[in-house]
Amino acid sequence: MLTPGERRGIALIAVVVTLALIAAAAAVVVPVLAGHEQMQNVTETREILQSLEYSITNGIGSANGAPGFRTSIGSKVPGRLSQLVVQITSSDRRCTGQKYGGGDVGNWTNNGPFSGLYITVGGGVQTPIGVIQDTVLPTSNAKVPSGDIGFVMDSVTADDAQLLDLLVDGTSPPDSASGRLLYDVSPSWPARRVVYYLTAAAGC
Questions:
Q1: 151 Cβ partners below 8 Å, 6+ apart?
Q2: CA–centroid distance for 92 within its chain
Q3: What digits encode the pLDDT tens for the residues 79-94?
């Protein structure tokens, strides 16, 4: 028969073994959960980028939703993403740098807003992995090929940039210099990336 001291010793061993098993399980589960959260964040960011794209480029009868800004405002592309949700005026500029006309303002009134996202003037759109800047980049920007427009997102970690590239372009390994998702090193964030998301929108 076990003495009280022996029983306490066995109980202590059981506790130690249990704690060791919990620690081992946590070592496996925590990275898995972290990886799952990262995938969720990057996937949500891709969906936000796609939503902004559709809000600009959707044609009449598009399966992606109602007609976008470009279709509704006479084949013009906004100079800022915030123009998708904030009424434009004749003082505002499209992505070519030209001002809108009175007819454009009226068309916005009749058809806008064009997005349900929270887009701040001068701030842009917050995503789980970085901020999409308010400015829409025209073809004159060195990062944007002819016939395209671009959205820029800064302060994105290298891992997130590569994962977003895989989701957008579907190529492996990730390629920072080709496809619709481009990224490079930001001078002020050595360990992070500036990301450029390109979409076809001839007639900016």
A1: 49, 52, 81, 132, 133, 136, 137, 196, 197, 199
A2: 25
A3: 999 999 999 999 999 9
Residue located via tokens 């399980």: 25
Q: Burial, 81: exposed, middle or buried (Cβ in 10 Å; 0-12, 13-18, 19+)?
A: buried
Backbone angles phi, psi at 42, to 5 degrees: -70, -40
Q: How far apart are CA 37 and CA 40, in angstroms?
A: 5
User: Which amino acid belongs to residue 137?
Assistant: L
CA distance 27 to 14: 20
Name residue, tokens 């308010």: 134
CB-based contact 191:157 (threshold 8 Å):
yes
Structure tokens at 189: 């964030």
pLDDT per residue as tens digits for the range 133-149: 999 999 888 888 888 89
Query: Are 163 and 151 a contacting pair, CB within 8 Å?
Result: no
What whole-number distance in Å separates Cα of residue 204 and Cα of residue 151?
13
Q: Which backbone phi and psi does 140 adopt, to 5 degrees? A: -65, -15
Whole-angstrom distance, CA of residue 183 vs CA of residue 116: 27
CB 203 within 8 A of CB 161: no
